[in-house]
Amino acid sequence: MWQxxxxxxxxxxxxxxxxxxxxxxxxxxxASAHEKGIRxxxxxxxxxxxxxxKARNSWQQYIRKLGPGVHHAFLGAALFFYLVQQEAxxxxxxxxxxxxxxxxxxHHGVLDDLSNDPPWFGGWEExxxxxxxxxxxxxxxxxxxxxxxxxxxxxxxLEQDLRKLPRIWRKWSLKALSRMDEISSALPWTLRGPxxxxxxxxxxxxxxxxxxxxxxxxLAKGALAHLxxxxxxxxxxxxxxxxxxxxxxxxxxxxxxxxxxHKESTPITILQMPTGSGKTLxxxxxxxxxxxxxxxxxxxxxxPYLSIVTQTAxxxxxxxxxxxxxxxxxxxxxxxxxxxxxxxxxxxxxxxSPVVVTTFNQLFGAIFPRKAQESMRLRALHHAYVIIDEPxxxxxxxxxxxxxxxxxxxxxxxxxxxxxxxxxxxxxYAFGLESMITVVSxxxxxxxxxxxxxxxxxxxxxxxxxxxxxxEHVAKSGSCAVILNTIADVAQVTExxxxxxxxxxxxxxxxxxxxxxxxxxxxxxxxxxxxNHQPTLVIATQTLEAGIDISFQxxxxxxxxxxxxxxxxxxxxxxxxxxxxxxxVFDYIREDGSSSRHFVYRDAIMREETDALLTGDKMIEEPDxxxxxxRYFDQVFERNHYTVGRQRLIDAACGQWSAxxxxxxxxxxxxxxxxPVFIPLGGPKDQPYLWIDDxxxxxxxxxxxxxxxxxxxxxxxxxxxxxxFLRRKQFLNLLGxxxxxxxxxxxxxxxxxxxxxxxxxxxxxxxxxxDLGLGHWYIRHAQDEGVIL
Length: 789
Fold this sequence. Notes:
The chain is of the alpha/beta class.
């Protein structure tokens, strides 16, 4: 049997060993550093015990490659509860201890619910204690945390003591988790701060990385100086494009709001400025000034979609000269030979950089984590300045839940929040926020500076009408985007234009049923065509709507709901570089006479309120949009407060974490199971590597694989297990660049549907085309699918 002081936490080398005792001690100290009183002791104990199971002889054999793998988390969870139930704790501290016990049991996997059975119940292995040096372990606990060192070193006796725990566990659960039926009492328990502290301490020590301290006053002052130079250069650039009036307006409104932002009288600020008036630069400047006067922290910019993360990260990097981390599900750090290969990935996943640019999905993962690993990001929000861009895109069903969680976030993490948009949905239905919010609004856009006008076309359009209409707009204005509600609609209109288009016209389709590499390639080609002043027509779903920095001179938008239409209008004449652009809203009618609108916009209240505001004779100037959107949101939320999510937060605080785990910002994914499908293509038949960018090419060379071989390696038995942590993550990242997440009912028609595989493969390659992605298949098989983000 391995003596406790000889046990290791992970493999090392002759010169660099990783004793288990050192790892447990470090995690206990670091996890509890920000707690006080008894909770500090409890969190420290959780850190000391979380990997106790690694002291088993069988685990020490496994880590030295002398035996099979064994579970290790359940043993620490059981001993943790055995030790804390000996204490006379308050009901609140009992609840704290129950949650920590669950965290120990789940610290490498999915965060489970608290149930009547203790969390180690299903994983308990008889005899586990008898293969441990309990005397050595007892001495370690006694020295590190003497208060919680009262346990027998006789394995048989300790096993007997632990068998009594399920009854005590149920008693504690009844007492600690009941009587919490108000959101006010539940809210402090909905933020996974202790979970985050424990998981971050464990992963950081295992990877030998230090938390990034964030932006201090000196760093902020230097970045501000660079930012001022950037703003001046940007003003000259826009003026040179012909947008002098817009540049002048931006300068004026930025000046008007900045002194109000600097007051920071509340932890949450809502910044309302017209689209295109320079909100991002104002927000970055406000964040840097915050760090000049406050404790160091991270600047975290959160964008709606992946499509604008790279663009925004580049802009902030260029404007401030700060180190910027871009984090989303496809991002990968610079790969170097390091002592600890997990380090670069953990730095990224835990947001360890002065500036982080990420997506709504990743922020939701931090606040509503499904896996223990996701909770690490919560630590990065401590003293952070978080900028949330265009939040009105969130689904109304999650809006109030998200806002309500900002309260514990600002109170417990001292996070400063800036929400920015031209207009946002009401926040009065979120719990307890009104006194915590300051609203800063700029002057509305003057009518003379309006970049576009929205009107409703009275005549419904079918596929032929739309195809012809779109080409007429390109002929008049030079560029046009047609945004339709479903993938099938996009494919049908694109096909119709392909059969009749002027050969000089640059035609592109863009939607979510395109492989990520393909979609990125399409976007680059659209930008190139417009940069070269070629007549350009893009047929797209809502993929094009939010944040993509492409400026069209005309936009045709199939009737949607008002916020979506306004988002689409934001792609029109973005810098005011041309004469006023036209945004036409129209009723798109399929060949069978039906409308696809309700497939995507399922909330009847939102559709009805949109229709009440967008009548046939309506001409909407850009300066009128904020008041129009406010009326829309007021009407919608008056008819449905969307407060049902409060009960889900209460359930989570009572231990039913699955009520909120993995909550998605765009709502629909919560209810629709999607399956990743591998698309074995890197380009069209005659140019099979056309879409593959340099980073992807580097990964393929690292694994010495062709496109087709990527999937073959993935399904090869034992292949992933043979890779170390870093290379496994690299390979899965490479795989993800060729995947589309497709709803289950459609996936069954595209793949063999092998239930034993986590990722399916597209069977019929012919169903994917360079022009339409899977669009043609959707025409025949899935007319109702709208958005795959």
